[in-house]
């Protein structure tokens, strides 16, 4: 797309009235574009409409009217979650009109160098961690994007002295054209969001757009233990900085000695940064990391790699590794009840995320899982259910699928929570059932392996209700 200043006097359609849509509409309007915002929600469900109309921006609610997209429209900016199959997007593509997400607009506006972080799991934790690391060494980060401040707003506020640290979803990246982060990080790739992307090929291709415009002056931070990340190496033009839990790298960030599952040898392991020219730096001991779980060691390696690629001294990262206690809804400790520890991992919206959470505990786990059915059979959970879970409380659209896998895993305690008067009542019942099964020394874990939208408006709402239910036991 052109720079936003170049749409002065031209028609732009923004699809979706979420935070990012409101902000991008304001940005384009301020630069003289003739902006129309369209949302399928009814007007009474769209409180943001009045604010935009007071600025002179046209807002159409209640559906996508015929003629919304026509030859006079020069740009469509869509909410990342809106499928490409909806009529206004299809109309735009047929007419050859550019369709982008807010990320593309923000990139064109931003004076600060950008760090882009994506992956199926761990994005928010790693992005937040990088922000803390850069802040600790005086690099003036602004954390934005898929978390926190809308990217367009942050981009306008940023100067050349800042670093823009951006969490990015596959939905956002799919709608980019010229976006080029100075540092790009791919954490991992798991089968998820196939209801949106259609197949893994489109999902991986969307993630890979993070690297599409990078050059040899940029850096790509890649998970060397993830096969999908390794497959991208021949197509990445940037300087590659790998990180690994299992391999001592010639250059990159790694654990020495390599990670051995189900051992207690954290005291003997260190996070190392190795550079061709500068040699080795011991960043920190693994046991000093402030977050539990193997996957958080992996997130820590990624965060170190990104911070180093941006210019941080690896010798100054230890304090940020130890002091960071995580992000809400990501393996968040809630309370101890009757000697059992309760953890909120509502952000686990796919099987891999739940697997990673379960393998973080050596104690017996009572698992609460289930949610939106996106077509997975959840068979990849079979080994971890056999090894780490003493009981399952299943809920939501996928409860029968999860019960089938739990039965194959040989679990003796399996409970199905039926649909009640409300989603909150179902989850509250699930917590009570889990509490009845838990004994002193156990972990009760909400880690749904599914999106929340069959019952809740968001994973955040699901996590908050879970925490309330635990505190009310």
Automatic annotation (TrEMBL):
Enzyme Commission number: 6.3.2.9
One of the GO biological process terms: peptidoglycan biosynthetic process
Xref: SUPFAM superfamilies: MurCD N-terminal domain (SSF51984), MurD-like peptide ligases, catalytic domain (SSF53623), MurD-like peptide ligases, peptide-binding domain (SSF53244)
The Mur ligase central domain, residue ranges: 117-307
Leading EC class: ligase
Known catalytic reactions: UDP-N-acetyl-alpha-D-muramoyl-L-alanine + D-glutamate + ATP = UDP-N-acetyl-alpha-D-muramoyl-L-alanyl-D-glutamate + ADP + phosphate + H(+)
Pfam families according to UniProt: Mur_ligase_C, Mur_ligase_M, MurD-like_N
Subcellular location: Cytoplasm
GO cellular component terms, A-Z: cytoplasm
Family to which the UniProt record says this protein belongs: Belongs to the MurCDEF family.
Protein name: UDP-N-acetylmuramoylalanine--D-glutamate ligase
Organism: Paenibacillus monticola
